[in-house]
Design brief:
Strand order of the largest sheet: 3-4-2-5-1-6-7-8
Radius of gyration: 17 Å
Number of helices: 12
CATH superfamily: P-loop containing nucleotide triphosphate hydrolases
Number of strands: 8
Structural class: alpha/beta
Amino acid sequence: MAKIISCSIFKGGAGKTTAAVNTAAALAQLGKRVLLVDLDQQANATKYVGLDPEQINPSFYHVFQNQVPAGVVVRPTPFDFAILPSSSLMAAIEEALEPGDETMLTNILAPLRDEYDYILLDSPPGKAQLAFNAILAADWLLITASAERMALDGVTDMIRHVQEILWPKFPTELANLEIRILFTKYKKSTSHAPGVVNAAKRVYRDNVLDILVPETIEFPRSYSQRQPLTLMLPHHPGALAYFQLARWLVDTIQ
């Protein structure tokens, strides 16, 4: 049964989509069966793999409307993993979701779990219902945070919300949730980025991964070329960081 990993943080611009797409590609390159789920109405993960979100019909919207099963919407990618693509219609889903609907995604993904080794969720930013759905569906919560001082506030906000608001409401669903923090946009040539990571480790200890994803123009370029960096430039330090993450996931999450 697939392990579900949600790339999440309420703050935007922290590299969630880059992490989700490149980790999916790296896991696929390790021979794993991988499904990437795009939950963001901006559909950046969908575009990243070369799909036009507005040409997909039926779409994820129809899955949430209980019109079609999720498997009907799943698409292959050229990168040996599958994607459950998003579109702008996800905004309508977000508007329609109400308190009490936080486990809809869990139920949607349940029939797919036997088909994959890993399901990665590209969670939308903000404290939205789809973001909460991603947390509740996950076995592992991978908080992606840029290595900047202000990002620590985002990490703290995310963890407090999970522990103080979601856990009391959904103790069974979150009983075995594991949380890890992945720092992205890391500038090793500065003293600032190492200081941010060390500060996080003092608070969150082993929940902070030793894997550091460097800041590089090659990630935006790989997005523009609609190809994960792990395939476009497999020996680039950014790609190597996601290969390291993929191997860690394979070794850690059985």
